[in-house]
Design a protein that fits this description.
2 copies of one chain form a homodimer.
Chain A (H helix, E strand, L loop, with lengths): L7 E7 L8 E6 L2 E5 L15 E4 L2 H5 L4 E5 L5 H4 L2 H5 L6 E3 L1 H13 L8 E3 L5 E4 L2 E7 L8 E7 L2 E5 L17 H10 L3 E5 L13 H11 L6 E4 L5 H13 L3 E4 L2 H12 L10 E2 L12 E5 L9 H6 L13 E4 L8 H13 L3 E3 L14 H11 L3 E5 L3 H13 L14 E5 L4 E6 L4 E5 L2 E2 L4 H13 L1 E8 L6 E10 L8 H20 L5 H20 L4 E8 L1
Parallel strand pairs in A: 3-5, 5-6, 6-7, 11-12, 12-19, 13-16, 13-17, 14-15, 14-16, 17-18, 24-26
Antiparallel strand pairs in A: 1-2, 1-20, 2-3, 4-22, 8-9, 9-10, 10-11, 20-21, 22-23, 24-25
Helix pairs in contact in A: 4-8, 5-11, 6-7, 14-15
Chain lengths: 555, 555
């Protein structure tokens, strides 16, 4: 009999109360397994930051207990931070073929491919990892080869949906394994962890196959080139573009680094079915008539360096938008990207393209389950406890309420947060504490070296710019030897503000004289005097508060 | 007979190819009138900018010819830049009562109220302004008292819709004057200028009155406080909150500077019907039971300093969110605001409030005409030429296509841009040139003193921060007297990067030695040497490119 006191610990290290960097820790006795290890993108306050990854402090501290990483699918918010973890905690990584195929590219970039231990699994596989047995269950999502997990240990069985939707007519004909969810429900599930992304949407998500029909409609009778932008990782979407191209006798060229990568990995592994002779090199598009060309590219989110963005400002090296080009943006802007996507569309129209986007046609469907799908999974799995995951706080709340509306007692639902330890067994569940959790900022080569102070300075500099005051003082007598000189950046354009800067110099001179009169020699006091008088003067003159940096040199 | 060669010039000075700062110039012979004078809000690349206003160069140059400003309604994107114009070009301003009432507040803040000449008009009024006769026509919109214009001169009649929707059941029972649009169509219209905001939406906009029904439903049976956030200027929406409050026996407190302003102006002028004893001071809410309170506030867009935002982070001085409060956000996030609104909702949920927002209930309707409404207006007015306005480029394109689908020849539709001169009479229309147009940035007290160089610097500083290198050189011998010192802000947190900065100093020292060896004394050359060597060193070490400012002092 299991030790009554030892329970399963479930600790989300990211993805709760936020969008992105999904990662969950499962800890039983001495063993830890990690499910997913994603990144998120910086928000607008994180000036200059490239990526955000989870805080791995707890995992690094307990690295000897970590048995494995298990991946549900190959999206960035589930695998993107893995290279950073593997550098510190090198353990076997389990995932389906496409997931690991996409991960390989990433590990190669970080120089980690040779040292990594990647283990391919298939749906229905069961793998023992220390005190855990993990079963992989086929689901559907906006990337192929995604799985849910059943995670078993002595005292509990957890179903973790990963990201999923219920698509009865998926492109690869691999329907989500509802039978297995039903069986697990019969066997008895302690805890359900489920995707909350679309919990605010009533009804059902639309099948991916509807987008294919839209492509067939849009391609029909078109004489011009067709350019389709979508998420590189959406292999099913890419397949449907190819299907429509083949149907209408067009060749397909692929553009954009990540799109080229994914198409290469996915077709190598058999996830894309591309008839011989369909794919052409993007350098060869000039050899064909416009009516014979489809170009698949990246940039559906208006990302500045992506294929479509470059085309929209005529800066793409290989593809120039010409009058009449049909451009299809097969995506919905992710919250925060609305304006950049709109800008790309406007630019493309200005270049004479005919742009079809989500407001005008059914060119995109979501990859996440809506309310009715969630109800189905809850009902099949009939867990004792529920931990909504993968969503902002309000979505977790709505998801908990959905579970309660299906009959689960409120105290069995846990609207939790990143870092909180949920201890469970068949009888009970309880938040018992917290581990260090949060975000680690990646800026260039630096991981975690940009913190709040640096970000606060960047914000301040971005708002009102900078004034530097340099003065050289005599070491012994404290008198001014050179300066004060004033240099400004991002404050006002100096040629138009000559007088203001000259007046500012007088203000500094006055402050320095006063210091000398009072025989103040303490540098920090002199600096404060300069800063205070200048701040007041500039605010009165401009209602702006630039960063003021007094620098004293001593000779 | 009119001089055959003299045509009407229609020049949009803002609002085309962008959202906001709507303003159109009408010029015939020696006379100019201006329709609307709005501002827009800075985009994310405009670091530190408060407001964006139109470029008034042309109007200032021709100030003696300007007869008047005519306002269609009181939204910021139609009146917000007027104080800046009136400072330069003080002419009579025509508008309906509420529009001018809201403008008065604004002029007061700028100290312009006494010097301004405001002239109240009513729908159906006709006013002669130089060579123009302007007629005001009632429309409907998300602010009360909005009008369209018929602008007549010897050679042309223009219908300008302003912002409008067709609401058959408006709150104030003042239905859009479709009869007048029909009559004008019969009389013969040269040019239609129309609102393109919702041209991408099929069907009809929903009546404002549906929101009132939602309020009645949501208020029913609620025991807690109710807090409704909406646009201050949406007087009809505010009226409906008050109606629901009165129905359920609740008092109404108003919070948020602009909401207090608008409620005061609108009720003074009779645009709000508030039963005696309904309004209470926000300081008195503690005197009533929670079930007796409705609070109307600002912040439906998540604006950082607004009422609801402050409540959501427990920083509101008078209102503290408590468990069970019902918060209704009666608005849709304007593109770009999605993330901040989501954050406010998440925070409110965390404080225990029950938040109802647009994804969950019909708590908002648009104030702009959708496709079927636009078709109706085009059909009634049956203009010879069409200039789509008030929209980004893609919307103007869609709107031109809508007109073409209704039978207008393509060459009669003008997808134009800010600054382009459209010359028209009954026979012909043609873009004949451009006037200076664009955006003037307002930052604090500065109007137009922040330009591209300042913004570029702010952006650079925000991305990777700043490194300042100070060195004091001997005037005669060029040798180093003090320094080099290195100061960084927004680059890396210095306590964690001590070595990096020390190494950077060595790099600078090496650069200085080399300069001295080569007997280089030109400051600019020495600065370049410092900058180049340091840039390369820091990029290799961090993959970041901070702004590098070498400063040389001479003694």
């Amino acid at each position: 009999m299991a030790n009554q006191k030892e329970k399963l610990k479930v600790i989300p290290l990211g993805g709760l109360g936020e969008i992105g960097k999904n990662i969950t820790i499962f800890e039983y006795k001495n063993d830890i397994i990690i499910v997913d290890c994603g990144l998120s993108f910086p928000d607008e306050e994180m000036y200059g930051i490239d990526l955000v990854i989870p805080d791995f402090t707890y995992l690094i501290k307990n690295k000897n207990r970590v048995k494995s990483v298990v991946l549900t699918h190959g999206h960035e918010d589930h695998i993107g931070a893995l290279p950073y973890l593997l550098k510190e905690v090198n353990v076997p990584v389990y995932g389906t073929r496409l997931t690991l195929g996409l991960l390989e590219n990433k590990l190669k970039e970080h120089g980690l491919l040779r040292s990594s231990d990647l283990r391919i699994v298939k749906p229905k596989d069961e793998v023992q990892m220390g005190g855990f047995k993990v079963e992989f269950i086929r689901t559907g999502h906006s990337i192929a080869d995604s799985v849910a997990l059943a995670i078993k240990c002595e005292v509990a069985t957890v179903v973790h949906t990963g990201d999923f939707k219920i698509d009865y007519t998926p492109i690869d004909e691999q329907v989500i394994d509802l039978h297995r969810f039903a069986e697990l429900g019969q066997e008895g599930i302690t805890l359900l962890i489920a995707d909350s992304t679309n919990v605010e949407r009533p009804g059902y998500s639309v099948s991916e196959s509807t987008v294919g029909r839209t492509f067939f409609d849009l391609f029909q009778g078109v004489d011009s080139r067709i350019i389709v932008a979508t998420f590189a990782s959406n292999v099913h979407r890419v397949q449907q573009v190819i299907n429509a191209a083949v149907h209408y006798g067009r060749k397909v060229a692929v553009s954009g680094r990540s799109m080229v990568n994914v198409v290469s990995v996915a077709s190598e592994l058999g996830y894309l079915n591309i008839p011989e002779g369909t794919l052409i090199d993007v350098n060869d598009i000039g050899k064909y008539a416009e009516s014979e060309i489809v170009i698949i590219t990246t940039g559906s989110q208006g990302e500045p360096m992506s294929g479509l963005s470059r085309m929209s400002i005529s800066e793409h090296r290989k593809i120039e938008i010409s009058k009449g080009d049909l451009v299809i943006i097969s995506a919905t802007p992710i919250p925060g990207n609305e304006k950049t996507v709109a800008q790309v569309i406007n630019q493309l129209f200005k270049l004479g393209a005919n742009v079809v986007y989500e407001k005008l046609a059914e060119v995109h469907v979501s990859g996440h389950a809506c309310q009715e799908e969630l109800k189905l999974i809850h009902t099949l799995v009939k867990p004792k406890f529920f931990l909504p995951a993968h969503g902002e706080f309000r979505m977790l709340m709505q998801h908990a309420m959905l579970a309660q509306n299906l009959g689960m007692p409120k105290e069995n639902t846990f609207v939790s947060e990143t870092g909180a330890i949920l201890e469970i067994d068949h009888e009970s569940a309880k938040i018992t504490g917290r581990i260090p959790a949060g975000q680690t900022l990646v800026d260039g080569l630096g991981v975690g070296d940009v913190g709040n102070i640096v970000l606060r300075d960047r914000k301040h500099l971005s708002q009102d710019g900078l004034i530097i005051v340099v003065v050289t003082l005599n070491k012994d007598k404290g008198g001014v030897v050179a300066g004060p000189d004033i240099i400004s950046r991002g404050f006002v354009y100096v040629r138009e503000s000559g007088d203001l800067i000259e007046e500012a110099k007088s203000v500094v001179k006055d402050a320095l004289s006063k210091c000398q009169e009072k025989q103040i020699t303490e540098w920090s006091t002199i600096k404060s005097a300069i800063r205070d008088s200048l701040r007041q003067f500039l605010y009165e003159q401009t209602k702006r508060k630039p960063m003021i940096l007094p620098i004293i040199m001593e000779v």
